[in-house]
Design goal:
The complex is a heterodimer.
Chain A: H1 21-33, E1 38-41, E2 53-55, E3 76-78, E4 87-89, E5 93-95, H2 105-118, E6 121-123, H3 131-136, E7 139-144, H4 153-158, E8 161-165, E9 176-178, H5 185-191, E10 199-201, H6 211-224, E11 231-236, H7 240-250, E12 254-258, E13 264-268, H8 269-274, H9 279-292, E14 300-304, H10 310-319, E15 323-326, H11 328-334, H12 342-347, H13 372-375, H14 380-404, E16 418-420, H15 423-429
Parallel strand pairs in A: 5-15, 6-7, 7-8, 8-11, 11-12, 12-14, 14-15
Antiparallel strand pairs in A: 1-13, 2-16, 3-4, 9-10
Chain B: E1 2-5, H1 6-9, H2 11-19, E2 29-33, E3 50-53, E4 69-72, E5 88-91, E6 107-110, E7 123-129, E8 143-148, E9 164-167, E10 178-181, H3 185-198, E11 208-212
Parallel strand pairs in B: 1-2, 2-3, 3-4, 4-5, 5-6, 6-7, 7-8, 8-9
Antiparallel strand pairs in B: 9-11, 10-11
The chains are: A alpha/beta, B alpha/beta.
Chain lengths: 447, 225
C-alpha cells in the first residue's frame, strides 16, 4: 500500500484497555456460535485475596514457638451446637463437595483415601453418595441439594454430617448443568434420569423457600437422623453477614462460606466472573455475624474459595474461621491440569493450567470425566497418596506460621497477627494496612 | 395398637419410638393423638407399620418414608411425604405446597386438594389427588405418575422429564416443554390401577395425559428466555 504520510509522524496503533484482545475474541466467539461460554472452575480474574495479607510473626511483643518441636495443635471439632455426634478432624482442611458425575468414581475414591489418611473429611456433591466415597472416607459429609439427586434416608443415616447447600461461591443464586456427555448409565441411574440428556440442577430447594422454612427442614432432618449428625449450611459469598445470621437462626451447627474463587463443575463464565464476592471480603462479615449472635466458635465456620497452601489456611484461621475446604486445589493435587498431558490439552484447544471444560467429559487426566478410557488413566490409590501428601504439607505450613506467631493451636491465630498490603485488602479483611494501625472504615476514624 | 399423645409426650419421643420399629415388629399399628399442626411427624420411618394421625399436621409429615403407611385424618402442611421412598401416605383433607416433592417411590393419596408445586422434582413416586392441584405442579418432575381428578393450575409440568401426568379436569396452562400426549391402552391400564389404588371414583377414559415434549433435553440457547 502506498504511504501517503509524506514522512510525517503517524499515530501509534493503540489497543483499547476496554476492548482487549480477549474481550474481542469472546465477542467474535459469541457472534459466531450464539451461545455463552460454559466452563468449570472458579473466578479467574484477579481479585483481592490472601496474597494481600501478611503475617507479622513474633518479635519483642510476641514469643514464638520452636518451629519443629513445640506442639502446635491442628484438630477441630465441628457440630458442637446441637449434634449428638460432632465430628473431630485431625486437620482443619476439608475436601469440598464435588459430585459423582462431575468427577469419576475413582476420583471420588481417591479423595476419600487421601482425606482419610490425612484425618479429614470429604463431601459428596450433586449426584448422591457412591460406595467408592463412603467406603474410603472415614468422615463423609452428605450434601442436601436442591436437585435431591440420589438423596435417600439410608445414606442420610450412614453419613457423618449433612450439608444443606443453599449456594456456592462460583454461582450464588445459580443452579447447575451436567451435560449429556457425562450422563453415563450409572450417573443416570443414580439421578433417575434418562441416559445422555443434559440434566439441570435447580437453583433453589423444592420444598422450602426461606430461612423460616429452612428451620423446619432442619428439624425434619434432625428427627430423621435422631439428632446425631452435625448439620452444615453452605452459602455462596453474596451477603455473608445476613446469610450467616439467617443460617444460624435456621439452626445450623456449621456455616460453610464459599467465595467467588470457589470452583464449580460447570456454569456460565459470565456468572463465575461477575456474581459473588471474593472470599477475603466475606470472612470478617461472617465472623461479625457470629460474634453479634454470641455464636463464634459455637457455630463453626468453614471457608472455601481459592485456598492453595498453608499460608492461606493460616490466614483464614486468623480471620476467624474454624476450618477451610478445598476443591480445585485437591483436583490439582490429584493430577488435574498436569503439564504431562500438555499435548492432549493442546489438542482440546487449551493448555495445562487453563483447562476448564470439565463439563465436556474429555479430561485427559481422567478425573472430571465418565469416559471409561480416560478414567482408566487415573489411579485412585496414587491419587489418594498425592492428596494426603498435599494436605500434610498444607498443615505443616500452617503450623510453621502459627508457631512463628507464638500460637500452640491454629485456632489461636488472630487478626492481630496480620497486616494488609493493599487498601482493598485492608478494607475487606479489616486488617491494618502494613506500616499503619489503620484500615478503611475502622471505628473511630472518619476516612 | 400403640397410642401416642404428641402433645404430652413430644415429637422426639414419637419419632424415636417409630424409628425403633424393626421389620418384624409386633407394634404394627400406631395412633397419634393431638398432632395440632406439628412439623416433622412420623419422618424417616423404615418399617411396615401403620401410623394413624388423628388431626392435621404441619410441615414434612411422613418425610422420607419407607415401608410405612401413614394415614392423616386431617390436612397436612407443606412437603407432605417429601422424598418418600416406598410405602403409602394418605391425607384425608387438603395438602399444602410441595406435596410429594422429590419422592422416589411409594404412593401419596390426597383426598382433598393439593396446593402449588405438588410433585415437584418427583423421582418415581405415584401421587393421586382427588381434588385440584395448584400452580407449577410437577415442575422438573423426573419419573412416576401424578393423577389429578380435579383441575390443575398454571404451568403444569414445567421443564418436565419422564413423569406422567393425568388430569381429568381443566388445566389452566402447561409449563415449558409440557404437552398433551396420546392416551394409549398402556396408559389407560396404568391409570386404572392408580385410580383403584387411590380409591378414586373416576374412569381412566375421562382423563387426558400430559408429558414431556423432550425439547429441553439438550442444552440449546434457543431454549433460554
Amino acid at each position: 500500500m502506498k504511504d501517503e504520510s509524506n514522512g510525517a509522524p503517524r499515530t501509534v496503533p493503540v489497543q483499547s484497555a476496554t476492548f482487549t484482545g480477549k474481550v474481542n475474541a469472546e465477542i467474535r466467539r459469541a457472534a459466531a456460535t450464539g451461545i455463552y461460554d460454559i466452563r468449570g472452575g472458579g473466578a479467574k480474574r484477579a481479585v483481592p485475596h490472601f496474597d494481600d495479607l501478611l503475617f507479622l510473626g513474633a518479635s519483642m511483643s510476641r514469643y514464638p514457638l520452636e518451629g519443629y518441636r513445640e506442639k502446635c495443635e491442628t484438630s477441630v471439632l465441628l457440630g458442637t451446637r446441637f449434634a449428638q455426634k460432632p465430628i473431630k478432624l485431625d486437620i482443619p482442611v476439608t475436601i469440598a463437595g464435588m459430585s459423582f458425575g462431575a468427577l469419576s468414581g475413582p476420583a471420588k475414591e481417591s479423595l476419600g483415601r487421601g482425606a482419610t489418611l490425612a484425618g479429614t473429611s470429604t463431601t459428596t456433591g450433586d449426584g448422591g453418595m457412591t460406595e467408592e466415597e463412603r467406603s474410603h472416607s472415614r468422615t463423609l459429609v452428605y450434601q442436601y441439594l436442591p436437585s435431591r439427586y440420589g438423596m435417600n434416608p439410608d445414606d442420610l443415616r450412614r453419613c457423618d454430617a449433612i450439608e444443606i447447600v443453599v449456594g456456592q461461591g462460583a454461582k450464588p443464586g445459580g443452579g447447575g448443568m451436567l451435560l449429556g456427555q457425562k450422563i453415563s448409565e450409572r450417573v443416570a441411574q443414580m439421578r433417575n434420569l434418562p441416559k445422555g440428556i443434559d440434566q439441570r440442577s435447580a437453583c433453589r430447594h423444592p420444598d422450602w423457600t426461606g430461612p423460616d422454612d429452612l428451620e423446619i427442614k432442619i428439624l425434619e432432618l434432625r428427627e430423621i437422623t435422631n439428632w446425631q449428625k452435625p448439620i452444615y449450611i453452605k452459602i455462596g459469598g453474596a451477603r455473608p453477614y445476613f446469610d450467616t445470621t439467617l443460617a444460624v437462626k435456621a439452626g445450623a451447627d456449621v456455616v460453610v462460606l464459599d467465595g467467588m474463587q470457589g470452583g464449580t463443575a460447570a456454569t456460565q463464565d459470565v456468572f463465575i466472573e461477575h456474581v459473588g464476592q471474593p472470599i477475603l471480603a466475606c470472612i470478617r462479615e461472617a465472623v461479625r455475624a457470629l460474634d453479634d449472635l454470641g455464636m463464634h466458635r459455637e457455630v463453626q465456620l468453614i471457608v472455601s474459595g481459592g485456598i492453595r497452601h498453608g499460608a492461606d489456611v493460616a490466614k483464614c484461621m486468623a480471620l476467624g474461621a474454624d476450618a477451610v475446604a478445598i476443591g480445585t486445589a485437591a483436583l490439582i493435587a490429584l493430577g488435574d491440569n498436569d503439564p504431562k498431558w500438555e499435548a492432549e490439552y493442546n489438542a482440546l484447544g487449551t493448555t495445562a493450567g487453563a483447562y476448564d471444560d470439565w463439563h465436556e467429559g474429555k479430561d485427559p487426566a481422567g478425573i472430571t470425566t465418565q469416559d471409561p478410557e480416560l478414567m482408566a488413566r487415573f489411579d485412585p490409590i496414587e491419587g489418594g497418596r498425592r492428596l494426603n501428601n498435599y494436605l500434610k504439607v498444607m498443615t505443616l505450613e500452617a503450623q510453621t506460621i502459627a508457631r512463628a506467631c507464638g500460637k500452640n493451636h491454629l485456632h489461636n491465630l488472630e487478626p492481630e497477627d496480620l497486616c494488609a498490603l493493599t487498601m482493598e485488602a485492608a478494607a475487606m479483611a479489616r486488617i491494618p494496612l502494613a506500616g499503619t494501625d489503620w484500615y478503611p472504615g475502622k471505628p473511630g476514624t472518619t476516612y | 395398637m400403640q397410642t401416642f399423645d404428641l402433645e404430652a409426650q413430644g415429637l422426639r419421643a414419637l419419632n424415636s419410638a417409630l424409628h425403633e420399629q424393626s421389620h418384624d415388629t409386633n407394634q404394627t399399628v400406631w395412633e397419634i393423638l393431638n398432632p395440632r399442626g406439628s412439623h416433622a411427624i412420623a419422618v424417616g420411618l423404615d418399617a411396615p407399620i401403620e401410623v394413624n394421625v388423628k388431626g392435621s399436621t404441619g410441615y414434612y409429615c411422613a418425610g422420607m418414608n419407607k415401608q410405612a403407611t401413614v394415614h392423616v385424618h386431617g390436612s397436612t402442611g407443606p412437603g407432605t411425604a417429601e422424598n418418600m421412598m416406598s410405602g403409602t401416605v394418605i391425607v384425608e383433607g387438603d395438602a399444602s405446597q410441595y406435596a410429594g416433592a422429590t419422592g422416589n417411590g411409594g404412593t401419596l393419596i390426597i383426598k382433598g386438594n393439593a396446593s402449588s408445586r405438588c410433585g415437584i422434582s418427583m423421582k418415581g413416586i405415584d401421587i393421586i389427588v382427588h381434588g385440584n392441584i395448584g400452580h407449577m405442579s410437577a415442575f422438573m418432575a423426573q419419573s412416576g405418575n401424578l393423577v389429578v381428578c380435579g383441575d390443575a393450575g398454571e404451568a403444569l409440568g414445567d421443564s418436565l422429564y419422564e413423569a406422567r401426568i393425568f388430569v381429568r379436569g381443566k388445566v389452566k396452562s402447561l409449563g415449558a416443554d409440557c404437552i398433551e400426549k396420546e392416551m394409549r391402552q398402556e396408559h389407560l391400564d396404568t391409570l386404572t390401577e392408580l385410580l383403584r389404588r387411590g380409591g378414586c371414583d373416576a374412569e381412566a377414559s375421562e382423563f387426558k395425559r400430559y408429558g414431556s415434549a423432550r425439547k429441553l433435553y439438550h442444552f440449546n440457547i434457543d431454549n433460554a428466555y
